[in-house]
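Contributing new records

If you add data, match the layout below exactly. Sequence lines come first and carry their own label; structure lines follow with theirs. Keep one chain per record. Anything else will be rejected by the validation script.
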Amino acid sequence: MPVANTEVEVLIVGGGPVGLTARALLERWGVRALLVEKHSELSPFPRSRLVNVRSMEIFRQLGLTARITAMAFAPEYGRIRFRDTLYDQDFATAAMVGINAPVPESPVIGVVTSQDRLEPTLLAAAQAPMRFGVELVDLAEEAEGVVALLFDHRSGEETRVRARYVLAADGANSTVRQRLGMGTTGPGAVGRVTTVVFDADLNQWRARQPAGVYFTPHGYFLPLYPEGGWAWIAPTPDDATGADWSGLVSRAIGTGHDVRVDVLRTQHWVVNAFVAERFRQGPILLAGDAAHAIPPAGGMGMNLGLADVHNLCWKLAGVLQGWAGPGLLETYERERQPVARRTLRQGVVNTQLMFQAQNTRQEQLQAGTAASTEAELPWSDRYFAQLGLVLGVTYHSDAVLTDGSAPAEPSSDTGTDYVPTVRPGHRMPHLSLTHDRSTLDAFGEWFTLLTPDPAHWEQATTAPWPLRIATLPHEHTHICGLSAHGALLIRPDGHIGAHWPDRPPSESALRNALTTITRSTPPNNSAGRQT
């Protein structure tokens, strides 16, 4: 390999939403990162469409929600409609919970937006260097990290970068995962589809019947941007090179309608369904589609990847900055892989439910009852009602101190129901601290101690960990299971690390909890440090 001419703390491979979010999060922590993306620019295709409430909570922490919402569709587009052609009436419909209207469990609302609108906002959220047209072609582990060989497609030059850690977010066909020989489990490739991006004068019609997805037997339609633009996604035909895409889209829109279809571009892609057998090998960690590929039904894949890096980046920062031990990184796979497996199962179920609705409609058409009968949805409005999977994620690892009086519960496999709880390992529930400030707004690049009695905890030893103490209003003590002197220790990713219902069992309880959670060596100094 050529001599290394760059050294960074974290090399991020892949410039999609997951890699870009990791870049922004690491910069907030003060970690030196370099992102490389093999393509020459951000993706011009819509790809992922749904930003759920948990992802918007992460973006709220980064100060991005207003910009993302301003370019997204209005909440009434948070709906899926089933119909025979685009111009027909609905035979079934379902709301996207947390997208079509606010939910009391979160201070934010999710949005329907196109990935090519989201990515520029994420790119602008950080100043860390990013190199387009640069591909990772090889990597090797060393005693103090990784050496990566990069190829610049513009200049034809090869360079070598030395990094303490590599965060691979380079997609379902991940070069990094393949180089490491990491296997996957799950169905694998489950279909080949084509996205056709086109223009057509459908805006007035769309405004009267808003939806984020229109599902028909001939493929499904996606409005791309509030000002216009469409995509049609359907199984790739055998003769894709000779396909009449304009004609295919026109037929799917419906006969008897004089709508001109101008095809702008097409993309053929594979629907994958798998979870990597491992998320980590030494200093190399997988995230997003490199770690798990989820079928698009339900819009969970990108959001799952965003939660990956939200879980991982604070751990990388802790190890690099010395307030966490290397063992903390072992909890990344332990916490995120079970979530990926549950999400994959739900994605497969969602796909089955979509086609079940279509099959029901076909039976009605064959029986001649379609004109007078709506298809009874097999899941009612629960197709996108996945708050249990979105907000109810539970972590079981050494980075969580299980409360003996309230043991952590296993996560729901269905992902539909969400019941807020303050059990360790769960996301801290949204509660109001002031009229416009949520408990979630108290979290950031630090641990947070939520307590109704800050004075009781202010003298606790907290060096070398970044910690802030926030006052919990007394009206919330009951729902949080706290007495007047109790406290909740919240990790930087918003998950509860420890729960003391009453005053701590010892003066060193907070220090011991931080030591255990971060897998660090107990500090010898006694000076307190709060950020």
